[in-house]
Amino acid sequence: MHNDKTGHFKKRLAEELQKLENELQTLGWQNPTTGDWEAAAGDIDSSATESDELADRQEEYGENRAEIEEIEIHWRNVKRALQKIDEGTFGVCEISGDEIEEDRLEVNPSARTCKAHMEEEGELGA
Ligand SMILES: [Zn+2]
Question: What is the CATH number of the domain that holds 97?
């Protein structure tokens, strides 16, 4: 892929990464050791003895956890794509090694596969 094209995707990916991190920060915090995102547990106030309130907090934690997991998958893909740009392997299907179609990258710059292997992208490991 030409450098000017890569530069275009790099800019888009960097913007997307920022946006995703902003979202993740509203839902939780990043573990500095593992780099993983953890759901905010909510401050359990020791005076909160009302079981309703505790249940609410647990529910909120569960919702944050689910939302983080979904955004985190996308966040990892964006980080991976940026790393590939640095390594010079951006735009290559991880399954077939073929070039990923440019229109596919326009829609999703963090795509890991070409169109023929889109269905299998979810099966790729972290
Ligand atoms: Zn492929």
Answer: 1.20.120.910
Express each pLDDT in 46-68 by its tens digit: 565 678 888 888 888 999 999 99
Confidence at residue 18, expressed as pLDDT on a 0 to 100 scale:
98
In the chain the beta strands, taken as DSSP E runs, fall at 28-30, 37-39
Q: What's the 118 CA to ligand 1 centre distance in angstroms? A: 8
pLDDT score recorded for residue 40: 85
Tell me how far apart the alpha carbons of residues 87 and 18 are, in angstroms, rounded to a whole number: 21
Q: In angstroms, what is the span from residue 100 Cα to ligand 1's centroid? A: 7
| pLDDT per position as a tens digit, 9-40 | 999 999 999 999 999 999 999 999 999 999 98
CB atoms within 10 A of CB 115: 13
Give the domain extent around 93: 3-123
Total domains in the chain come to: 1
Query: What is the CA(47)–ligand 1 centre distance, in A?
Result: 56
